[in-house]
What does this fold into?
Amino acid sequence: MTPGAFDARRLTLARWANELTKKELADRVGVSAASITQYEAGNTLPSPAIRSGLALACGVPLAYFERSPGRRRPDFSSRSFFRSLRSTSQRERDRADALAEHVVDLVDILDARIQLPEADLPSLPVHRGDRAEIEQIAEVTRREWNVPDGPIANVTRLLESRGVIVARLRSEGRKLDAFSRWFGDRPVVILWSDKSDKARSRFDAAHELGHLVMHSDADPLSLEQERQAHMFASAFLMPSALVASDLIHRPPTLRNWDDVLRRRAYWGVSAKALLYRSREMGALPEVAFRRAMQNYNRHDIRSRDGVALGAPELPLLLSRAAHAAALDCDALAAAAALSPAFVAEAIGRDVSQTAPGDLYAIGHRKT
Amino acid sequence: MISPSAAALSSLRTHGLDDDLIGVATTMAEEIHAAADDVASDTRSAAYDDSTSRGQLLYRRARNRIVARFEQDLAISCDTTDNALHIHYRQTAFSFYSAREGLERPSVYGSRTKRRVVDESQMTLDVGDEIELRRLVLMHEAADDGLVRLGVGVLASSTEWSWNIRLYDRYASDEGAEVDDQRVAYDQLPEPELPELAPRQRERSDHAAK
It folds into this structure.
């Protein structure tokens, strides 16, 4: 690699992906934190020896830092939406953004070989932000996508069929919610695979769709936009015109949780989400809602709720694209200068469960 | 338009309301309904106004509408002392409140006027075939998009009904509705198909050249 081919932004990305401060990275490499700042700003080029040290410290191949004409440069001008802003540290958000960038690296490689579906999302900016408007936006989105009346069979697949890249990654114990972001014309949604709650995962995907549809003027720190995306998810999964007969009118007692769970199983949401929707639509008064939530905890419904719906929906698009491109994990990893384990995770294949020669069998179809 | 169900009308009569009293209650209910719609449409752009101010707005608009509605009716008097509203028809007085904790849990306390309302409710006389209703209370639940439920009844105490009949319920037809177990749940529906992922043309021609 020639000195001019060093992509300073990749260094920032690698540091974020490893959740390292500049000082921590500097200590590992044996330079000053100020030097890392200079490298990341592109003011100074690290020597070949220091590049090797940086690569080693960040666990990436030297090629990772390469800047070449066909390779996208990371874009730090826009950031992702994070729901739990108060509980998510900047370091965790940086790591998540870095992982999303890496997913997009894979998408670029696949998209150069395979015609991935173009993003087909309505752009419906929010004006008033009240419930009536958000309900309407959710309704228009369903209509424009020809979603049949009733529950949505597979939210992840629906998004993928409209060109949204969905990846499930391991949060490794971090308190992170799903997040989304536009990379140029390509919308990306990241879900966390260590949350095994199917209802939650479906709701998360719908929530992120809300951001992508409504918030072209994204403000990742806006709690108001988070609230709107939440309302969107609720209305998208349970349209007001269709859900009325399933709304809850009284706080469930121990005897009638089964009925609530049956209703929520029809829509593929959690009982909690159905209770929120019931409150939102005025079927459950505020005080009754609070009592319902108390009962939810007291009667330990959580273990019978979203988790009980089964395994979360799995993305399929990238796995299929890799198969169509005849690229295995190693080839993809080499092309993107990423680890095969990350590639397998990002495209929806678990390396540890992959038999040799069976790299891209499509394993996530519903039986 | 408020149209109590046949069962509700029958219950009201059982509790001593004749057609005239039912008419007064229904008229009041209609004005509360209209006021709730007004407030919902006015406050939607500021939907996160606190519910208290929305409730106060609803109370005042409903009160003004009811007064205007009964203005020409000489048999009915409207007492608006202390910003409250008491509608008097024959020996029966009507008042209305919001049911912040739901219709099943009235909470009418905190002022002398409300104490009087509860006291008068308890003075209902039930002698032989005659029931003399001194005070009827209408209570309503409203959401940010309008009226949800409204009932009329007699209070046994500041937090309990002696009886209470639903005059309006937005979800009445759904209340207690049995869920159709034959419905096709989300996980039984066909999933959306991914489009065909074709190789890019350049790749094809490269292959062809080889």
